Amino acid sequence: MKEIQMVDLKSQYLKIKTEIDSSIIDVIEKSEFINGSQVKIFQKQLEDYLDIKHVIPCGNGTDALQIALMALGLKQGDEVITSDFTFIATLEVIALLGLKPILVDVDPNTFNISVEGIKRAVTPKTKAIIPVHLFGQCANMDEILSLAKSHNIVVVEDAAQAFGATYQMEGNRNVHAGAMGDIGCTSFFPSKNLGCYGDGGAVFTNNDTLAALVRSISNHGMKVRYYHDHVGINSRLDTIQAAILSSKLKYLDHYNLDRRKAAEFYDRAFSGCDKIQVPARNSKSTHIFHQYTLIIKSGDRDDLRKHLQSKGIPAMVYYPIPLHEQNAYKNLGYRTGDFPVTEQLCKSVISLPMHTELDIEQLEFITKSVLEFY
Ligand SMILES: *Cc1c(COP(=O)(O)O)cnc(C)c1O
Q1: What are the phi and psi torsion angles at 299 (to 5°)?
Q2: pLDDT tens digits, 148-169
Q3: CA of 65 to the centre of ligand 1 (A)
């Protein structure tokens, strides 16, 4: 059996090696390393894929979130609501810009931000909400968008883990993650569902004014070279990364289907085990399984993880510590007990290997090894 990895980027690459290699060499031969023609081509392809007016590629997913918030022109102390159960980047950019992060607990089944929690957290100072589509499945966007609209709050989607997922909006319109709010952000970090071979990210919007601001801010606040209208940053997608992404985008839906098939295999295997809760589905969203995350109800998650490790099966805990308990964010003033669902999930979740290259033999070995522990 092939070695089991959390994510197998090498095997995925080998299947499209010729195409990828020639796209990289092409960039080097043209030597247009920054803002080369492939960046524009990829941008157009993404606009078509997402059915959105503007895509602005940038350096990484964290920058995408930062640039989006900068473009909104928020003032120091303005409140921004987000989830307590996510990767640190979402919270980090709020704090970095001197805005006030307001954390909210999550739904115990889907792991996505609790709409009831948002309702309780909204104040007259709330200027933005950043719902995170965690592990590959969209948050309750119809409710979040209508709540935001009624309070005049901007919605910035963090779609870093759900690129390619769709959500059924009112009128049965299926919209891609990242294309529903005022601004969407994603990451092309190598292990994301659409990953490049280094850092990369993008911002999406249908709003012309915001798009112009985002484009300018991501390139030193300039539109005309050496004329700076805004305080900006340097965050551009490398041409080599754009060329790689351009090749990989056409496989994305297929890749996501492969992940879904692996998830269904796991689901079936664990359906009879009452110690394990398989990932719940939001009926309005597709799930593209950035992670396949179980809840272990018997309190022995860490022992299960050790057992799997002893068999050569990697398993990860996303995330072991709630954001409100992280050392760097103690000053936000939250205490243990403030977000009981997140606190409980951090003690009980475990993510199994999930990628596009898992074969039946590996899946059988993983599920057998989990079940023999119980
Ligand atoms: C990966 C990720 C980011 C950040 O993306 P980078 O490209 O690594 O900067 C932001 N939010 C979430 C939820 C992520 O998973």
Answers
A1: 75, 5
A2: 999 999 999 999 999 999 999 9
A3: 9
- In sequence order, the β-bridge partners of residue 82 are 103, 130
Q: Which CATH number fits domain 9-249: 3.40.250.10, 3.40.430.10, 3.40.640.10, 3.40.50.2000?
A: 3.40.640.10
What average pLDDT score do residues 316-320 get? 98
Interatomic CA distance for residues 126 and 113, integer angstroms: 16
Q: What is the pLDDT of residues 229-284, one digit of tens each?
A: 999 999 999 999 999 999 999 999 999 999 999 999 999 999 999 999 999 999 99
DSSP three-state, residue 196: coil
Per domain, the residue ranges of the chain are: 9-249, 252-373
Whether 79 contacts 123, CB under 8 Å: yes
pLDDT tens sequence across 171-206 = 889 999 999 999 999 999 999 999 999 999 999 999
Mutate to test the pocket of ligand 1, among 94, 189, 193 (most ligand atoms within 8 A of CB): 189
> What SS3 state is found at 57?
strand
Q: Distance, CA 61 to ligand 1 centroid (Å)?
A: 5
Which token pair is 125? 């100072």
What is this structure's pTM? 0.97
Protein fold of 252-373: Aspartate Aminotransferase, domain 1 (3.90.1150)
Q: For ligand 1, what atom is nearest to the CA of residue 89?
A: 10
